[in-house]
């Protein structure tokens, strides 16, 4: 994308979006939740996938058809789940059907997930570079959308962020402290998109909030890139064990009352994020929409 196109997408995304990450649910539930989130004023809705579970481009298509304005994005599309030409083609078709409303985040997943799917884990940086080559080679095989879609990399470390700067339209890191956002902006430069994913836990009791945060597997899965990135920021091994020390949880998760959650979002924006996507963990999509509607008035 050109610098002007990136700037236009910044405006479409707005400063705050959400991530709907609840596992399998009927299509009608996704339609209703997407409509409610759009009506609440969020600029974008991001969603994920699992190999053998929800397929992200099908999911995005359902929600694009159920909404009118909001940007829909993959956070992320797993490059191990499909051939790069298929990724490029799927994104092109959706972007052609819904001009200016698609963003594509691409990620390399983690070793355990890849090996469970029967594939062999290889160097994430080399794998991503080759995959982007394949996507580029497939441009034109499907309709070229009138409004291009941004390609963002799930880039945590400096090498992947530099690749995002050189070969993509920006980066989409998740579950990182504010200081990581500041470093990511420095590495990307001013002309790339920086979308930051944050988990919000609406709980004022510190012990309950941190216990909920530690249910995440981001710091406990073997080969977790999140652990490696936090080490690069100076967090010691003992602080990263057992789901993270109180300091780590406080830095990586957004918990508290509505005002505290809004402040943490603003902290990331002040550190250089263009857009902060709030993820909430609830048992179903209706509950997610309830919580996001409650948070919307206090977010920047």
From TrEMBL:
ATP-binding as a keyword? no
**Residue span(s) of domain Luciferase-like:** 15-275
The parts of the chain that form a coiled coil are none
Does the keyword Oxidoreductase feature in the UniProt annotation?
Answer: yes
Source taxon at top rank: Bacteria
Q: Could you tell me one molecular function GO term of this UniProt entry?
A: oxidoreductase activity, acting on paired donors, with incorporation or reduction of molecular oxygen
Q: Which UniProt keywords apply?
A: Oxidoreductase
Q: Which Pfam families match?
A: Bac_luciferase
PANTHER family per the UniProt record, alphabetical: 5,10-METHYLENETETRAHYDROMETHANOPTERIN REDUCTASE, PTHR43244
* The protein's name: TIGR03620 family F420-dependent LLM class oxidoreductase
């Amino acid at each position: 994308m050109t610098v002007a196109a990136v700037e236009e997408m910044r405006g479409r995304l707005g400063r705050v979006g959400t991530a709907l990450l609840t596992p399998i649910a009927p299509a009608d539930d996704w339609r209703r939740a997407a409509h409610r989130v759009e009506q609440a004023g969020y600029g974008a809705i991001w969603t994920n996938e699992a190999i053998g579970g929800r397929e992200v481009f099908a999911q995005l298509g359902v929600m694009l058809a159920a909404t009118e304005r909001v940007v829909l994005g993959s956070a992320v599309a797993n490059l191990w789940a499909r051939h790069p030409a298929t990724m490029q083609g799927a994104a092109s078709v959706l972007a052609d059907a819904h001009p200016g409303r698609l963003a594509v985040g691409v990620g390399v997943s983690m070793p355990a997930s890849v090996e469970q799917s029967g594939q062999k884990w290889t160097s994430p940086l080399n794998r991503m570079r080759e995959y982007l080559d394949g996507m580029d080679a497939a441009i034109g095989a499907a309709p070229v959308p009138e409004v291009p879609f941004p390609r963002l990399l799930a880039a945590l470390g400096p090498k992947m962020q530099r690749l995002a700067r050189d070969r993509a339209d920006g980066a989409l890191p998740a579950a990182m402290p504010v200081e990581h956002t500041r470093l990511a902006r420095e590495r990307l430069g001013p002309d790339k998109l920086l979308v930051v994913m944050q988990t919000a836990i609406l709980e004022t009791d510190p012990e309950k909030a941190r216990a909920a945060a530690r249910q995440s597997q981001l710091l406990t899965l073997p080969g977790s890139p999140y652990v490696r990135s936090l080490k690069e920021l100076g967090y010691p091994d003992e602080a990263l064990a057992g789901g993270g020390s109180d300091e780590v949880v406080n830095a990586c998760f957004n918990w508290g009352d509505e005002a505290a959650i809004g402040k943490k979002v603003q902290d990331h924006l002040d550190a250089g994020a263009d857009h902060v996507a709030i993820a909430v963990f609830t048992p179903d999509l209706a509950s997610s929409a309830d919580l996001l509607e409650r948070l919307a008035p206090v977010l920047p």
